[in-house]
Amino acid sequence: MLIVQGTVRVRAEDVERVRAAVSWYAPTTRAEEGCIHYALAHDMLDPTLLHVIERWVDEAAFDAHVASAHVKRVNEFMSKIGPLELNLRSYIAHDENLMAGG
């Protein structure tokens, strides 16, 4: 499994534009083959800070996602607004353990 985790910081005046972009991007990404989980959420204490969490069945599924038209579209959008910070990391997970819940 491939996990992507990170943050994006945008200007306060761009928060609503980002929210509108996510409204079409998130469901499209979640529907992709190999996507286990996708979330892009505003921080509860700082609406200019977005948290990204993605889980993909494998690197090939993630690579297909990155090559998709909707990723190109959102990347063009983000390059136009110019995020103040962008920090994304990927991890390969071999084991997953349920810590709480079901």
Task: Note the main attributes of this structure.
102 residues, alpha+beta, Alpha-Beta Plaits, 4 strands
Which SSEs are present, and which pair or pack?
Elements: E1 2-9, H1 15-30, E2 35-42, E3 49-56, H2 59-66, H3 69-81, E4 85-92
Antiparallel strand pairs: 1-3, 1-4, 2-3
Description:
The chain has 102 residues and is of the alpha+beta class. It has one domain: Alpha-Beta Plaits, CATH 3.30.70.100. The chain contains three helices and four strands; from the N terminus they run E-H-E-E-H-H-E. The protein has a four-stranded antiparallel β-sheet with strand order 2-3-1-4. Helix 1 runs antiparallel to helix 3. It is globular. The mean pLDDT is 94.
Strand order of the largest sheet: 2-3-1-4
- Overall number of domains: 1
Number of strands: 4
Kindly state the percentage of residues in helix. 25-40%
Q: Helix and strand succession?
A: EHEEHHE
**What is the name of the CATH architecture?**
2-Layer Sandwich
Average pLDDT: 94
Q: Any low-confidence stretches, pLDDT <50, length ≥5?
A: none
